[in-house]
Amino acid sequence: MVEIALGTALAAIGAGVAIGFAGLGSGLGQGIAASGSVGAVAEDNSMFAQGIIFTALPETQAIYGFLIAILLLVFSGLLGGGEGLTTGAGLVAIGVGASIGFAGLGSGMGQGIAAAGSVGAVVEDKGMFAQGIIFTALPETQAIYGFLIAILLMVFGGILG
Amino acid sequence: MADEFTAILSTLGLSSEAFIAILILVLLVIGAVVVVIVSRPVLSIYPYLLPAAKVRARKGRLFDEKQLSEIIEVENSNEFVNYLRGFPDYANHLDNHSLEKSLDIQLAETYDLLSRIAPKDISKSFAALAKNSDIINIKSLLAAKESNLNKDATADLLVPAGSLYHTIEQLVDANTVEDIVAGLDGTEYSSVLEDALNQYNESDLILYLESALDKYYLENLLSATNVPDNDNTLILHSYIGTLVDVANLKLIIRAKADNLNYENLDPHMISRGYQVKDWKLKDLMESENVTSIINGLEGTDYSSILVDSLPVYDETGSVSIFEKALDDYVVKYAESLSVRNPLGIGPIIGYLNGKEKEIKNLKIIARAKREAGFPVSEIQEMLV
């Protein structure tokens, strides 16, 4: 059995939390948006492009979570090529994962709900596309905050560099 | 740091493996709690997403103010029909049916669509709503028999929609109203019509049969939304309750204008309305005249809109002004409900209300355009 340092094992949990919760939020959000989009496209074929755009928006939270998870795995030495993390850095890594994981969960769900509402508005009135995109983009900010804090934690918590 | 941490774990009597196991367990519990909490709102809106998008797409195809103005300005019925042929929803039916029938088919298709796509918690109500097509067909059949229309003319009145269409279609050559009622034996309308048959036989008026069908229809709708248990069913309950209130008020006002008393009215009233409760309904039925009915509605939304129409009624003596005011109120009320739950029942009520309003207005315009030179300003006043 491969010997893994405690700090590295904690970083692995952090990576799991990062992509797990961010992916959950993103998946729920995308499911909500896709369901609304399918209804719109079923009635109006010309809605396909707009439907795809609105459905794709809640993907970003999973991407943030994925990026943070990859960074944690690489810099914790779990993927090889480096020393394992200290226990303190490992605990920071859990904070990193929680930061992007929970922010991504809330943001993804919120964005999905906003996207589904926007698809409904656009299929009713095509002129609502720009406003719909703006309203749907707003819940992205929470994921960005989570992502930024995760990066800062990694930089100043001794994981990156 | 690691040494301090290991020391703390040792003090607690935990190994590193045990600590990680506890940490994973804690995270799993937190994760499960989070999933349960976030799932609740998602589960409540999820069934509505697809139907809401579908009806909003259709709502976007309803005629807007500009298009309605263009329709009002057309010269005659032919131009009106040609205008409607430019819209696939209507064009499909206008090739095979008359204008009035095409409009009825469109409305029946709307009820049918909503009953098919409505989420489970409101599906019962929309299934009850879709029965409107059967009720309309039975009423047409009764009216045709009363007017002694022949088989072809009677068949032409029927709208090819509803679960009983084929049963009703076979009754076009029935000789009497009694034969029609007997022909509907085994359907849910059989007992309703049989109960009203005595009054029909005594008065020779099919009005009693029609009124019994209307009452049955609205009571059915009401009982389908009787126990609202979430925001969507609460909104639907308030909408259907308002329809019941308006039906009751229209009947009471018309009956009082015709000097009918409590005993005449009571059998036709539908209890458990939304704003007009049973005790208030009783008071209104016992009112002396139309003015006292309207005064008795104080404290309800209906009071102000009917009070505003009172001067016109005093001048003309026609209760249609109250009926129009109540119809307008239902449309505005439904519009206010349609924005209350945008990822729930709101868009469904919005579309239903919009489609009903469109069909009503198109029928008004169709009737007006049959008369050469009917003033455009008068049509505009008649529109809902």
From TrEMBL, chain A:
Database matches in InterPro entries: ATPase_proteolipid_c-like_dom, ATPase_proteolipid_csu, F/V-ATP_Csub_sf
Query: Where are its TM segments located?
Result: 61-79, 91-123, 143-160
The species is: Methanobrevibacter filiformis
Task: Give one Pfam family.
Answer: ATP-synt_C
Could you tell me the membrane topology recorded for this protein? Multi-pass membrane protein
Which is an annotated GO molecular function term of this record? proton-transporting ATPase activity, rotational mechanism
Any idea what this protein is called?
V-type sodium ATPase subunit K
GO cellular component terms, semicolon-separated: proton-transporting V-type ATPase, V0 domain
Keyword hit for Transmembrane: yes
Subcellular location(s) of the protein: Membrane
Keyword Transport applies: yes
Q: Which UniProt keywords apply?
A: Ion transport, Membrane, Transmembrane, Transmembrane helix, Transport
Family affiliation: Belongs to the V-ATPase proteolipid subunit family.
* V-ATPase proteolipid subunit C-like domain span: 13-72, 94-153
UniProtKB/TrEMBL annotation, chain B:
Record-linked Pfam families: vATP-synt_AC39
Keyword Cell membrane applies: yes
Query: What is the name of this protein?
Result: A-type ATP synthase subunit C
Species for this entry: Methanobrevibacter filiformis
Name the Gene Ontology biological process terms.
Answer: proton motive force-driven plasma membrane ATP synthesis
Topology in the membrane?
A: Peripheral membrane protein
Record keywords, A-Z? ATP synthesis, Cell membrane, Hydrogen ion transport, Ion transport, Membrane, Transmembrane, Transmembrane helix, Transport
Protein role? Component of the A-type ATP synthase that produces ATP from ADP in the presence of a proton gradient across the membrane.
What's one GO MF term for it? Answer: ATP binding
Q: Which family does it belong to?
A: Belongs to the V-ATPase V0D/AC39 subunit family.
Protein location: Cell membrane
Q: Subunit details for this protein?
A: Has multiple subunits with at least A(3), B(3), C, D, E, F, H, I and proteolipid K(x).
An annotated GO cellular component: plasma membrane
